[in-house]
Amino acid sequence: MRGIRTGLAALVALVSVLAFAGPTVVRAEERVCTSALGAVTVDNLRVPQNATCTLTGTYVKGTIKVERNATLNARNVNVVGNVQAENHKNVTISGTSRVGGSVQVKQGGGASVEGARVNGDIQYDANRSYLKANRNIVGGSIQVVKNSGGAQIVGNTINGNLQCKENSPAPTGSGNRVGGSKEGQCKQF
């Protein structure tokens, strides 16, 4: 009987320690891409500084993050979260790619999103090289703000707004179907 009480006391002590420790936090794993990935599944993906990552048919359960001076070439990918690039060299998303969140490209080089389905927004902010948003289906808005390398916005279906502000030169485009409003430099397309 004494052994049972000792065992029970130890079990109660263990349960109280675990309860005090709080809930278990599960973290998604991050895959680093410095060359190429094919038709594999990853949690999150990071393209590190100065690297070039080519994705073909890759499934990303979380987010793709493109770091300083890095290049992402993504074709026929499925990303559940966002594609985020800051101070990047170049970002290309093409083919039958799907992005469950937004494509956010800021303060970097060029970018091209062509033929993709983006559930959130496409945001180009303060980039210095040429940008393209062509033939996409966008659940949110396309926002092109303070870019200096030129931009082309052609043949998109946009549920939200098409906003272009303070770009030099002004973006060019045509044939966009916009559910919301066309604003600023994008009023004519």
What does this structure look like?
- This protein is mostly beta strands and 189 residues long.
- It has one helix at 2-21, and strands at 30-32, 36-37, 41-42, 44-47, 52-56, 59-60, 64-66, 71-75, 78-79, 83-86, 90-94, 98-99, 103-106, 110-114, 117-118, 122-125, 131-134, 137-138, 142-145, 151-154, 157-158, 162-165, 172-174, 177-178, 182-184.
- The chain has a nine-stranded parallel sheet with strand order 1-4-7-10-13-16-19-22-25, with no helix packed on it. Strands 2-5-8-11-14-17-20-23 form an eight-stranded parallel sheet, with no helix packed on it.
- The termini are far apart.
Key terms:
8-stranded parallel beta sheet; 189 residues; mainly beta; 9-stranded parallel beta sheet
Question: Gist?
Answer:
With 189 residues, this protein is mainly beta.
SSE blueprint and pairings:
Blueprint lengths: L1 H20 L8 E3 L3 E2 L3 E2 L1 E4 L4 E5 L2 E2 L3 E3 L4 E5 L2 E2 L3 E4 L3 E5 L3 E2 L3 E4 L3 E5 L2 E2 L3 E4 L5 E4 L2 E2 L3 E4 L5 E4 L2 E2 L3 E4 L6 E3 L2 E2 L3 E3 L5
Parallel strand pairs: 1-4, 2-5, 3-6, 4-7, 5-8, 6-9, 7-10, 8-11, 9-12, 10-13, 11-14, 12-15, 13-16, 14-17, 15-18, 16-19, 17-20, 18-21, 19-22, 20-23, 21-24, 22-25
Number of domains: 1
In round numbers, the mean pLDDT is 90
Shape: globular
Find the structural class using helix and strand composition: mainly beta
Largest sheet: 9 strands, parallel
Number of strands: 25
- Rg is 22 Å
Number of helical regions: 1
Helix-strand pattern, N to C?
A: HEEEEEEEEEEEEEEEEEEEEEEEEE
How helical, in percent, are the residues?
10-25%
Strand order of the largest sheet: 1-4-7-10-13-16-19-22-25
Ranges where pLDDT stays below 50 over 5 or more residues in a row are 14-26
For the termini, the CA-CA separation is 84 Å
Proportion of strand residues: 35-45%
